[in-house]
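RECORD TYPE: inverse folding
INPUT: structure tokens
STRUCTURE:
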């Protein structure tokens, strides 16, 4: 959930972006990079974490890597810019090495090894020539990244794009379960603002700062709640999920608000798409047996009377991102057994997203 401090950071960033005259996103159409199975179960063959003692980046290691990966690969979710200049997660198989956190940053750097494997249309967020060290303080769940001066050579056409560089770093590193916050330094000094558009960095960064921040007109920014939503975008013949953080009128019912915003759909002009009909009604959202139950009317089945994998993805990723409840049960008018295209069992958030296989 979002703290008042984090909300204030988002408000400040929103004002900077708003005053710059820069607008952001909305709807369009889609198909999928490595669609997950209908049950969206979390794979139990791969679990990646950073060490639980304070160490330098070259001493960080991954754990429980799939024994079948004879070429010693490890699966990580890393964030890149796409053709629309949004930050997008891609799950890649990369070589397993000592210092997996630093290896991840190499895959985020222009001219680095990722450029040989990420799809056309995606690009790394760190400038060419950037080097780094990383220390992890497990008691604080804090990763301290110290970049070389080349980090300051980044290109950003707007404050929004400048913030997205921070989003990509933060969301990539906090993908490790032992890290919740990221402190950015340059040549040993804490970076308090980005140099080009003066985006402030208030304390350690976290996912509470949002991603691909979406701004709405005629909204009192000081009385808002951020929700992170997942919609689809098409690249050539592939479809992939894009997270956006939308500021909505202040609410305490974050789960219901998340579903309401999914039904409203992507912001016009964003080239994002949703298969959820705007006539869909939410009957109830509640916690039961440690999972979240979302009950809809029959409109959720859409025109073809099916509950598609794409729609399941959007609901599961969005709800689990905002509520910290990892398992979702979808119902239609209180029932599960007769839902086309989905099993009646609760759905766990998968660890992989936009998985790329080469």
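DESIGNED SEQUENCE:
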């Amino acid at each position: 959930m979002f703290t008042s401090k984090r909300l204030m950071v988002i408000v400040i960033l929103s004002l900077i972006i708003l005053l710059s005259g820069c607008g952001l996103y909305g709807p369009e159409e889609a198909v999928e990079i490595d669609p997950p199975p209908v049950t969206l179960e979390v794979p139990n063959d791969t679990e990646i974490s950073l060490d639980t003692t304070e160490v330098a980046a070259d001493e960080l290691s991954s754990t429980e890597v799939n024994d079948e990966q004879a070429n010693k690969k490890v699966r990580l979710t890393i964030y890149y810019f796409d053709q629309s200049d949004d930050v997008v997660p891609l799950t890649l198989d990369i070589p397993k090495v000592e210092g997996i956190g630093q290896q991840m940053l190499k895959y985020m750097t222009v001219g680095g090894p990722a450029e040989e494997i990420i799809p056309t249309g995606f690009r790394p967020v760190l400038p060419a020539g950037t080097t780094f060290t990383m220390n992890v303080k497990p008691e604080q769940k804090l990763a301290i990244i110290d970049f070389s001066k080349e980090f300051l050579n980044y290109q950003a056409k707007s404050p929004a794009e400048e913030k997205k560089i921070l989003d990509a770093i933060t969301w990539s590193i906090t993908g490790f379960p032992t890290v919740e916050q990221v402190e950015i330094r340059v040549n040993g000094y804490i970076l308090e603002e980005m140099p080009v558009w003066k985006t402030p960095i208030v304390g350690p960064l976290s996912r509470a700062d949002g991603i691909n921040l979406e701004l709405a007109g005629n909204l009192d920014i000081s009385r808002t709640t951020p929700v992170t939503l997942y919609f689809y975008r098409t690249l050539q013949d592939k479809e992939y999920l894009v997270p956006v953080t939308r500021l909505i009128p202040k609410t305490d019912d974050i789960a219901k608000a998340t579903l309401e915003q999914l039904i409203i759909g992507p912001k016009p002009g964003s080239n994002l798409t949703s298969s959820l009909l705007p006539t869909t009604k939410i009957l109830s959202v509640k916690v039961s047996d440690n999972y979240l139950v979302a009950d809809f009317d029959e409109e959720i089945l859409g025109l073809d009377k099916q509950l598609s994998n794409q729609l399941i993805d959007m609901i599961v990723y969005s709800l689990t991102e905002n509520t910290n409840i990892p398992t979702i049960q979808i119902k239609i008018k209180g029932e599960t057994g007769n839902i086309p295209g989905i099993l009646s069992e609760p759905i766990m958030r998968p660890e992989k997203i936009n998985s790329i296989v080469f």
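NOTES: The chain is about 20% helix and 25% strand.
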